[in-house]
Amino acid sequence: MSSWRIYGAVGLLLLTTGCSLLGEDTEDVPDVKRDQTFATAGPRQLTDAGPAPGVMREAWRVKGLGQGEEARPIRLEGGQLFVAGADGFDVYDAGTGQKRWRYREPGRELTGFAVNKDDLVVASRSKAGSHLTGLASGTGRLRWERGGDEGRPFTHGHGGRLAMGEGVVPLLVRAEPSGRDEEEEPDEFLALDAATGEERWRRPHHAPSGCDADTRSAATDTDGSVLVFRESCRDDHYLYAFNPSDGKPLWSRTGTSDDSLVGISVRAGATLIELDEHTRTLVGRDGREIANLNGIGECLPPCSLWSVGDDLGLIHFDESRNMALSVISVSSGQVRTLTTPHDTMSVTAGGRWYGVSSKLGGNLLPARLNVLDAATEQLTTMPLPLNLESDVGSLRWLGTAGGHLLVATSKGGDLVAYASTPTEGPLELGGAAKDEWPQACDLLKDVPGKTIARTPMVEGPVKIGSQELARSRCHVDYSADGEDGQAIVEVLWVAANAAEADGLVNGEAGLYGADEVQKTSDEVAHVRKGRFVVKVQSRQEDDLQRIVAGVVEALP
């Protein structure tokens, strides 16, 4: 049984401010070496929108972001892409993919960073001690630095998202242990000005008796409008919300749950509190409940709020384990739930929901992009020219900026931006008409030896949005040099042009006369010629080259 109880923020008294942590003594500041470049001006402003429905084409690409376990975390902040590494990050223009500046601290470990408008704060550590650095977020110019051992910043997740709100960075300052006969001093919340590094406010914090100090964190999944501090003591969880700019207490809550962690997400002054998959509530800046979300189903982790136009959205599973998007009106608390495709990764922007799945349908090579307009509830399905069944791996990051869909994969090592263009052809098929798909048996005109049997087959039909596509497949049995063989061809995709098919086959250019050939085994190859992609199989390994060459010759 889980429950929440509201308490007044009693005892959180504002202390005097303006005192620097360092004062006149700078001996606690580690000597930090920096390797950095700078931008001459801040980034251009980009709309918070992804592409409109249309034919998706690659607009630009950033290469070399690491593969597998070495893949570097990506964060989209204020029109810039921050690509983190062990000791710093590289910053790219989110509208063009051009590199803008970099910041590194060689020999030190990056433990977290936060961006809020013009301010960027970096936390790092080494044997010499912890360190905080303030930079101008648009150019990378150094603003301030200070030792970071007095207070601990709040970080979360891979890539170290640092808590920040309205230009301040909160720290937790642990009180020094007192003697047995002395009253224990309280811990403190300390907020630093992100632009100057100076202290903005302090507040004492009395932790619940017997609370494990290591189970403390701050809400880092936040847009900065509210700072929420959490600590847990066995099955009891305590939350304290503050106005970031001056530390004024907004509300506090305590709840009981068997789960050791509590999910917190803040958008537009509203806070989503999750005790477990059955107990969720959305509270406003004044601590009052906006909406009870207990019955909407398990979140797609992490349980985060999304901006959906003027409303908030929550992506989750419904009772049938289908993907759903609940849209919550902050003003009225009304919740409407939209069924969405079961996609592997999704994001919202500009009032639209974007979801990507590994398959468009059946054995078709392109990934599937679904776009749901939250206002009209219109769903559009289209191919994304990305083959997630090849060696690029699975999706690992998805974002939108300036009308682009930004995609990074687990093994590809690249970040790709896709834009859309209108088409007169069927959008679900990338603008290519169904009658432009060749018959597979027409491609197997040339096989070794003597043809014994030719068997056409139909694969499908596959339903893609409003379109149904029947794909052809052909088996040809033949005899050559006293041995029986079999050739199989299946049409996997026909794009509107060659550029839109490029990238679906990550193979060797020019092999067997094709534009690209990717051998998935000794007997199987994916072949691209122009805008056509086919799968070729041969029972006899030695015959594959001749069969592929014949298929390439037969393709338009």
Give your account of this protein's structure:
With 556 residues, the protein is an all-beta fold. The protein folds into two domains: 35-422, YVTN repeat-like/Quinoprotein amine dehydrogenase (Methylamine Dehydrogenase, Chain H), CATH 2.130.10.10; 434-554, no CATH class. The chain is 3% helix and 48% strand. It has a seven-stranded antiparallel beta sheet, with helices on one face. It has a five-stranded antiparallel beta sheet with strand order 1-21-20-19-18, with no helix packed on it. Strands 2-7-6-5-4 form a five-stranded antiparallel beta sheet, with no helix packed on it. Residues 6-27 have low confidence and may be disordered. This is Pyrrolo-quinoline quinone repeat domain-containing protein. Residues 32-252 form the Pyrrolo-quinoline quinone repeat domain. Residues 195-218 are annotated as: Disordered.
Mind sketching the topology for me?
Layout: E1 3-7, E2 35-37, E3 55-62, E4 74-77, E5 80-84, E6 88-93, E7 99-104, E8 109-116, E9 119-126, E10 129-136, E11 142-147, E12 152-153, E13 155-156, E14 161-162, E15 168-173, E16 187-193, E17 199-205, E18 216-218, E19 227-233, E20 236-242, E21 249-256, E22 263-267, E23 270-276, E24 279-283, E25 289-292, E26 305-308, E27 311-317, E28 323-328, E29 335-339, E30 345-349, E31 352-357, E32 367-373, E33 379-384, E34 395-401, E35 404-409, E36 415-421, E37 450-464, E38 467-480, E39 483-494, H1 498-501, E40 508-509, E41 516-519, E42 524-529, E43 532-538, H2 544-554
Antiparallel strand pairs: 1-21, 2-7, 3-36, 4-5, 5-6, 6-7, 8-9, 9-10, 10-11, 12-15, 13-14, 15-16, 16-17, 18-19, 19-20, 20-21, 22-23, 23-24, 24-25, 26-27, 27-28, 28-29, 30-31, 31-32, 32-33, 34-35, 35-36, 37-38, 38-39, 39-43, 40-41, 41-42, 42-43
Organism: Nonomuraea diastatica
Domain Pyrrolo-quinoline quinone repeat: 32-252
Protein name: Pyrrolo-quinoline quinone repeat domain-containing protein
